[in-house]
Amino acid sequence: MQDLYRKLVWCRPEFWTVTLGGSLADMVAWKGGMPPNPHFLAQQLYLGRSLSPFFLTCAAYFILWIPEDPPSWVGALVKCLPVLCLAGFLRACASGHYSSLLQVALLFSAFGDGFLIWPETFLYGVAAFTEAQLLYVWAFGLTPLQPGLLLPIVLASLPFGGLLLLHLSPDKALPLTAYILALATMLWRGLARGGSAHWGALFFAISDAVLAYHTFIQPLPYSRLAVMATYYAAQFLISLSAFQSPRLKTS
User: Considering only CA atoms, which of 192, 190, 163 is closest in space to residue 176?
Assistant: First the structure.
């Protein structure tokens, strides 16, 4: 049974190199029958414990189901806490310029979460999330460039953005157009970076597309659940990219 567990979990490359940023050398050593470095295992356990506040606050959000309640400061706090926990996780467990940019982006995201609670502060939320997307673009960088990824993003963004603009009031058209451009750029750079940033960027785009369609075009069943589940997953996956190296492909 122990050997089967080792084959199914510990020997999977993504467990070491994607989920918690382990090295390929550790994976190869364990697959060959050699136990990984005890310090490395302790580090993985520490990272797992450090993520527990994020998972607990996500559970609290969905159990309380704040979106169905009237806007309140309590609701804003519960909504923001998972993202703030991710910022704290990176602060405690990661270092470097890339991690710092992610932390600031997470803080702007938390501000955006709070502002979006109240209709009268909606545009402040859009501005905060636009800044968060630009910080993610800065963090992901322009290497590898991968311009070929732009075509499917443009083909998806233009029709959806055009449809959305038909349903927006004049005061929201320009800020949301700027946000769509920032989100599309972040998606491009996240896909190009690879690793968990790839999936995080994709989930972020899906979350915002569902939110925009539900809010401005036509209400969707279970949209709140879909929006927040994909949003928290996106922030989680992007945060994990602080423990990975970007892929080196340039084509």
Answer: 163
pTM check: above 0.90: no
CA trace torsion 225, 87, 126, 154 (10° rounding): -80
- pLDDT tens digit string along 206-238? 999 999 999 999 999 999 999 999 999 999 999
Residues 89 and 131 sit within 8 Å (Cβ to Cβ): no
* CA separation for the pair 13, 34 (Å, rounded): 15
116 vs 11: CA distance, rounded Å: 43
pLDDT digits (tens, 9 = 90+) for 57-109: 999 999 887 666 788 999 999 999 999 999 999 999 999 999 999 999 999 99
Kindly write down the DSSP assignment for every residue of 25-91, as one continuous string.
HHHHHHHTTPPPPHHHHHHHHHHHHHTHHHHHHHHHHHHHTGGGSPP-HHHHHHHHHHHHHHHHHHH
CB neighbours of residue 175 within 10 Å: 17
Residues 91 and 104: beta-carbon distance below 8 Å: no
> Length of the chain in residues, anyone?
251
Q: What letter would DSSP give residue 202?
A: H
Residues 6+ apart with CB under 8 A from 59: none
Helices vs. strands in the chain: H and E counts, helices first: 12, 0
